[in-house]
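Give me structure tokens for this 255-residue protein.
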Amino acid sequence: MTIALELLKEKGIKKPISLEQLAEARIKSGAKSSLSTEGSYVKEGAIYVPNQAPLFVRDSPVLSNAKEATQAHRENREFYLDAKTYLEQAEEDKTKEPQKRKILILKQRDDFSVPTDKFGENETALWAFRDNAEKYGEFLRENGINNWNVCLVGEYYVDKQEKSFARQLWLRRLDGGSGLSDDYGLLDCDDPVCGVCAEGASEKIFSPSKTSKDSSPYTQKELEKYTKIVEGVRKGNLPSSKLEKIEEFLEKLKN
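Here you go.
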């Protein structure tokens, strides 16, 4: 991810695309566009606090500390941080409409799903997609997706941590249900990142090894990443829903 962020900066794009912007771009470009057939990191993030509800934040702390967060994942540890200011902001925001909150306090601590015909009234969908929530729910239903899955780090794992930690959020491709999850693994793997140019056009950025004609269909870092997911599920530290990332990886190898 760090390489992709540098490429975005070279093009004058400061941050990855937001959930709201990506939803709008998918609606406009259609289900067959690369924006819909590929998943992408987004600028939002998740903060996990032991023994408390997870937080979704508009501006992920991972982005402002990308090198430090990537190094933490290379060393097979979480990107830990002090969550005090985020918790204070979340309390301040909780009486506002979901679309206007900087930070959302989730009501669930484990994976959950939202019917796509309820996007116009569901707190999480409204926070994520804002004014595009209802339209994106309709777009998903048109493409056979009746439930939108939100995958979280399991509370058992979170509560074992001594400190709060942050993860970057990822919006899955359409044939993966367009689910929302944090990305478990190395942040510098060759996963796509979208940005929004000044004129509003969406642009997909891949790290160089994915665009090279002579590149391998996978990297050693990717193998390590997905091996960690399998191990996490096997040991009970991760929910089985994380295996969907493995499925996406295997599908890429077929193409």
